[in-house]
Design goal:
Elements lengths: L1 H14 L9 E5 L2 E5 L2 H10 L4 E4 L2 E10 L8 H21 L7 E8 L9 H16 L6 E6 L8 E10 L4
Parallel strand pairs: 5-6
Antiparallel strand pairs: 1-2, 2-3, 3-4, 4-7, 5-7
Amino acid sequence: MRTLILAALAALAAATPALAQDYPRRLPSSGGETIIPAPEFQAGYDDYNYAAARRVGDTLYVSGVIIGRAPGEGNDAAAFEAQTRRAFAVLDRTLRAAGATFDDVVIINSFHVWDGPNFTGGRMGHLEVINKVKAEYIDGPWPAWTAVGTTALFEETGIVEIQLIAHVGED
C-alpha cells in the first residue's frame, strides 16, 4: 500500500511540476540570477534553454519579445498597435518579476522586419506605434534605443522583436 501511495504522489508531482512552484522563480546564476516570471515561461526555459530575464549585479537583461500577428489578426496599424501593446505587457510582467519597471530600462534594442507581409505600415509606422505604446509605460526620461532592420524573426509572423537592458539595485 505504501508503494502505491508513493507512486501516486510521484506521478502527481511529475504531472504538475510548474503548479507546485511559486513564481517568479529566481534561479541562482553566475553573478546573479535567472528569472522565470510565471508558469507560462517555464516551458521556454526547460525545452529551449531560454531565460526570460537574467540579472548580473545591478544589470537586468530581458530577452526579446516578438511583436507579431496571431491567427486572424490584420496587418494594419490598428492591429500592430494591439500586438505591440500585448508585447509590452509581457515585457512589463518580466521586468516586474525581476523587481524592476520600465523606469529602470536604460536601452531598448529592437529588430524590425521593415517591409514584411505582416505589417503594411513601413518603417515610420513601426516607430510611431511603438512610441505610442512605449509612452503608456515610460514617462521619461527616455531610454536609449537602437532599431535594427532584419529579414526575419524566429516566429514567421514576427514584425519586431524588443529586448531590454535595465539598471536595478542589487538585492
